[in-house]
Amino acid sequence: MARERKFTTDELFEATKQLLLHQGYEGFTFGLLADNLKVSRGAIYKYYENKEELITNFIFYEMDQFLLKLKKINQHQGFEAQFHFLLNLIFSYSDIQKLIKIGQQLPGYQDKFKTLHSDMYQYLQGFIELGKKEGKLKRHLPNNLILGYIFQSVAIPNHSGIPHSEWASSIKEIICHGMFTD
Amino acid sequence: MARERKFTTDELFEATKQLLLHQGYEGFTFGLLADNLKVSRGAIYKYYENKEELITNFIFYEMDQFLLKLKKINQHQGFEAQFHFLLNLIFSYSDIQKLIKIGQQLPGYQDKFKTLHSDMYQYLQGFIELGKKEGKLKRHLPNNLILGYIFQSVAIPNHSGIPHSEWASSIKEIICHGMFTD
DNA sequence: CCCTAAAGTGACGGATGTGTTACTTTGGAT
DNA sequence: ATCCAAAGTAACACATCCGTCACTTTAGGG
Fold first, then answer.
1. Searching chain B, which residue's CA lies closest to the CA of residue A146?
2. Class of domain A64-177
3. Model confidence over A25-40: pLDDT tens digits?
4. CATH 1.10.10.60 fits A1-47, yes or no
């Protein structure tokens, strides 16, 4: 009963993601996006009223995906297992941090993103507390610093082309035991 | 022999810095900048041909300032002293990482920034090697990961308002000895 | 086969940013 | 007092992006 679509929502979101990561919020335009999808600009307006609505929808979608997987952390028994699950998850969603920061730029949504972000941190407080209770994590370190530290670690640029597995395991080691020998 | 200026280069650079950090490269405009300086847009064109030239000049200036201080690292004896000097320096220049990333967006200057960046890393190789030679740093960790890690650590957002001194010393501890107890 | 409704197009008017230029202001030198 | 050159202004022409709207295309149901 209708004409065939020239792009799917998945393709739209993927193109949006790439553009956002490479151009940032201000550099993102429907023109570029339409070019990417080989479609006219007007076609996108059939689905989203404006750039803000599209980006908001997209980033909330990405965060939902991430939170969904994050909540599986409780399926793992013991702090150590949860810790490795979390690190692997963050590595596989290494772009999410950047996207959240872009989301915070959205006019009128700063609050929503702030609460979403702090909800996430809140949700992980239990994980941190478990680590401290099990005597694995140093008690005197602020919880939010520990979490921020873990999330930030994936953003370190790997210019020198070190293989991913070596890179990841090195980071894990520094997070756990530091870069000093003693 | 000339009229009094309404803004100094320092004021211009400071306003540029704030705008760049808050709006990003694409969101930065001469209009906003002129408003900030309470001056007409045209006045800025008396000194810089366009936005790209201004931003390029500004970021190179900032990096030069940073590199100048960085080179004082050799005035400190021993790895440990150099390590704390570097960390304190990075904390006091916590914006420079963001600015460098913006610089990498400058069309036609990616290469220049890449080499500048890798020069900086190159310059610090000696420092890392010293740490390894003194037996302080773990030998098997890639040098560039260690450096990237140190530089990245100041970017962790301190939302919960923990005092700077506690924040900084906690970060130092994690970098050195990790967040695990053993 | 024809009609319909969803999908897509292209051109519009408005807003904003850019770089230029002719103009005015101003302070020191003669 | 006058002149000049640097400093600043304001308006212009140009480009880009935005959101809209009247239009065309196309697949499926009757």
1. B179
2. mainly alpha
3. 999 999 999 999 999 9
4. yes
